[in-house]
Design brief:
Distance between the termini: 48 Å
Strand content: 15-25%
Largest sheet: 8 strands, mixed
Number of strands: 17
């Protein structure tokens, strides 16, 4: 059978309106998903949608056609407002101007209602890293980030921390055998997980195509600043929510996100957003999807799936290492820091984007890591309204990746690791401790945002090679 050929004239002949984009959308959808069908069959399908479009709203494949027939999406160049939405910057003197200007641009979006920049802030794409933006009925794919649902996860074990020195080779071997990093390493045996039963994998075409990749990458970590570490957990707050007595414990801390699944979701929906809400040059990457549209709703579902998948990856990592240890954790603490949530801000439900920022609602626990030689912090949010109930997601970069590679040597890193008693497996120069801000200084700028419950000191670190 030959390739399906479909022209605008064919759709006009069966009653499709020439006004708007419905014809081009319908042709795109049919050629993408029904290219092996006979032309008469495809046209009959299009007639059926035209006759009763309400019936197909929300359908993963033809829903966009139905939506365009009922309420055409208005594609027009968007202009930035002249005034910024209200905002607060924490630790402003230590944040580069480029990151601040990226926030200022985001605050001029017509959908922007409020914003904040955390003390680990530095320049990114779209929103700066450490940027928080509350928007009305819209979601910005690049306000969430490419690594959707990137998160922290900490398991605490009741084991003498002296074992980390006395049995170091054993722990190094565990990380080498039971963790996988980068674009190509995957586990030989994949554990079953309920995430793969989710309807999004069957009903959203873009997500459906990513099922195999997501399945293969379960329990693996990405490159860059992603890691899995053994270290010392010190619980300092006797009133902690996870009911662990004050003291020192063995800990496993992991940092990674939604792998190829999240990256491809971000890529697909960012393209759609840029087409639907074209913005001036400096704001291009802040294009949004209206949550009242098919694409907006679809991204929201896909984003939440990617976030849950990121959590599943962490749980798989911790399960594998826990099994190797032969131990059950006393407690687990985890949080996303690249995501968007529906939250009430000043009495209004808004979409709060946190691009490299930790949720810090009152009483909510989270983890803020330092670097491979600096401690991380277990924190409890205070619910500060000026930060949109957020805190930093780490120390934040002080050197760009390219500058770190130009100015830091392997011998510099080896000395730092030796001085702090840290063993590193893998890792690249651009992730050197010196490329990051002083975590203690960052924490000093957010005492109103979080309370410290405990610390995590890295001892054996595994990263991508």
């Amino acid at each position: 059978m030959g390739k399906l050929k479909l022209r605008g004239k064919d759709l006009i002949n069966i009653g499709y309106p020439q006004k708007g984009k419905v014809i081009s959308i319908a042709i795109d959808v049919m050629l993408k998903y029904f290219k092996r069908d006979r032309k008469d069959k495809v046209l009959q399908r299009l007639k059926t949608i035209l006759k009763d479009p309400e019936k197909y709203v929300g359908d993963g494949i033809v829903g966009r056609i139905a939506e365009e027939l009922i309420t055409p999406v208005q594609v027009e160049a968007k202009q930035l407002e002249t005034k910024r939405a209200p905002f607060t910057i924490f630790g402003e003197n230590e944040i580069e101007n480029e990151a601040k200007h990226q926030l200022y641009t985001a605050l001029k979006l017509p959908i922007a209602k409020a914003g904040a920049l955390m003390p680990d802030g530095h320049a990114g794409y779209g929103l700066p890293i450490g940027g928080v933006l509350a928007a009305k009925e819209a979601v910005i794919p690049y306000g969430v980030g490419v690594d959707i649902g990137c998160r922290m996860c900490l398991s605490i074990y009741d084991t003498p921390v002296s074992y980390l020195d006395g049995h170091k080779d054993k722990y190094v071997k565990m990380l080498q055998e039971h963790t996988k990093f980068g674009g190509f390493e995957t586990h030989k045996r994949i554990n079953d997980h309920e995430i793969f039963e989710r309807s999004e994998f069957k009903e959203i075409p873009t997500v459906k195509k990513l099922f195999k990749k997501a399945y293969q990458q379960l329990g693996s970590s990405g490159g860059g600043n992603h890691f899995v570490e053994f270290g010392i957990v010190h619980v300092s707050d006797e009133h902690n929510e996870f009911n662990v007595p004050v003291g020192n414990y063995l800990g496993i801390l992991s940092h990674s996100g939604s792998r190829g699944l999240g990256a491809n979701i971000a890529k697909h929906y960012t393209k759609l957003a840029i087409k639907q809400t074209p913005l001036p040059g400096e704001a291009t990457n802040l294009a949004w999807l209206d949550l009242n549209t098919h694409d907006g709703q679809e991204y929201w579902l896909a984003m939440n799936l990617a976030g849950d998948y990121a959590s599943a990856c962490h749980h798989d990592i911790h399960k594998r290492l826990g099994k190797a240890l032969g131990l059950r954790p006393l407690a687990m603490v985890e949080n996303h820091h690249n995501f968007a949530w529906k939250e009430v801000v000043d009495g209004e439900e808004l979409i709060v984007h946190r691009k490299g920022a930790t949720p810090a609602q009152k009483g909510v626990l989270g983890i803020i890591p330092g670097s491979m030689t600096a401690p991380g912090f277990i924190v409890r949010g205070t619910g500060n309204k000026q930060s949109l109930q957020s805190a930093s997601h780490g120390a934040g970069r002080i050197l760009s990746r390219s500058k770190a590679k130009r100015t830091i040597t392997q011998s510099d890193i080896k000395k730092q690791l030796k001085d702090h008693g840290v063993t590193l497996i893998g890792g690249s120069i651009d992730e050197a401790p010196m490329a990051y801000k002083n975590i203690h200084q960052v924490m000093s700028h957010q005492t109103a945002l979080v309370e410290i419950v405990g610390t995590f000191t890295p001892k054996i670190v595994r990263m991508d090679r």
